Amino acid sequence: MDLRKLLTFVILITSVIFAFSKNEVMVTNLEKGLKVTTRFSEFELNDKGDLINVYLMMDRKMHVFQADGDGLELFSPEGSPLNVVGYSLKGTTVAPNTYSGDLSLVYEYENGVKKTITFKNLPEYVTIVEIQSVNPVVITLPRVWYEDNDRIMKDYFISFAPKNRVISLSKTGEGKLVSNKLYLQNYGKITVHMAPYKRIFLKKLFSDDYAQLLSTIKGISGSSAWYDPVFYPLVWFFWWLFEVTKNFGWTIIIFTIIIRFVLYPLYHAQTKSMIRMRKLQPKIEEIRKRYKDPTKQQEELMKVYKEEGVNPASGCLMLLVQLPIFFLLYAVIRYFQEEFAFGSRFLFWNDLSAGGFGPNALFIIITIVASYYNTLITSQDSRSAWQGILMSVIFPFLFVGLPSGLFLYYTLNTVIQLLITYYIYKRYKIKGLTTRELLGLRPKG
């Protein structure tokens, strides 16, 4: 099968795989209660309608909340717990215990009190809690860390867990807030945001109070990182590109191209240093053969480097400068994984947050092909070329579990690197290997 047919086959397979990607809410009956699973969260509630456990499931299942007098429990003003008399589910059913769109659990308590918990099918981890009552009631708000890390500002209760960088933010609106207890007269609507701490979520959900919220949260130990002054401008730039393109796939592509263009001088300097070292290789080999004494050999090598104006460490230094930048860019794109899941279709991909071999098959092929030709261009002999090719085949499979949005970034970087390398090596008239030379069918030169 030639390359064109292989690519056509992969495209057809991936388009079929991605056609069935969905965001749904599932309900599972527990021994005493219910489990509600959204795309990125899992909630466990007891038979009283109280929240008892919450897990976040973006990269791995992470336990972020366990009830300790803070699970949306209802009390009378005197402190007596209210008893449930019944509950019902409201939502659009697409399969047994599976719902599209939002799901509401409606709990009815004694004395005509009703609590409705609506799990919003959105990327921002939103749960809406509504309380209706004839008489005053008290509801507890969830914490993800210890009480001494709580923050209260007008209409907001904030709990932040520095260990996992998770936030539980409740916008209360009505009622009187005392610690994590909200005192309501007869009606209350609470927006609960229990999620990885991301400023983009706060900006989207609470735009009117964003500046004050950010200032309050910054006062919590562990809420800020040393790289935030560089990281967040890139995050907002990425988001601005999305608002222009309205598509995360094209946003990733444009973002990557712009950043690589900005960083081109660093890569050019690194490649130029490698080329100059490559041209010196015959002299270096001659010195190593002529002088067996390591000290004398090193002296002669330093003379050659000085005469030619070459610093052998400059290529590695440029690489070391670039590495933290690329890790930072990777983190920026990873920051938007939840948004990828609910974003618009990109070519064959309905969901750029999905990972695995199926969604990433086409990226793996493109990456391997681009890495193969990049290795041929930069190699001086077949031995080093085979080593590079082996690594280029293994490396993409190490990342096969990455979300497709991140793999798109990785693949595009590999292709851009190939184009830049080809341009620089052609400009300086440096020839690499051909496939025939690699296979020993024609000697180099």
Question: What structural keywords apply?
Answer:
17 strands, 445 residues, Beta-galactosidase, Chain A, domain 5, 13 helices, 45% helix, alpha+beta, four-stranded antiparallel beta sheet, 13-stranded antiparallel beta sheet
Written description of the protein model:
This protein is of the alpha+beta class and 445 residues long. It contains 13 helices and 17 strands. The chain has helices spanning 3-18, 199-205, 210-218, 228-245, 248-279, 281-290, 294-308, 314-334, 337-342, 357-378, 382-398, 404-427, 435-438; strands at residues 24-30, 33-37, 41-46, 51-56, 62-66, 74-75, 84-95, 98-109, 114-119, 126-132, 137-140, 151-153, 156-161, 166-171, 176-178, 181-184, 187-196. Strands 1, 2, 3, 4, 5, 7, 8, 9, 10, 12, 13, 14 and 17 form a 13-stranded antiparallel beta sheet that branches. Strands 6-11-16-15 form a 4-stranded antiparallel beta sheet, with no helix packed on it. A hairpin with a 5-residue loop joins strand 4 (51-56) and strand 5. The longest helix is centred in the middle third of the chain and has 32 residues, at 248-279. Residues 10-21 have low confidence and may be disordered.
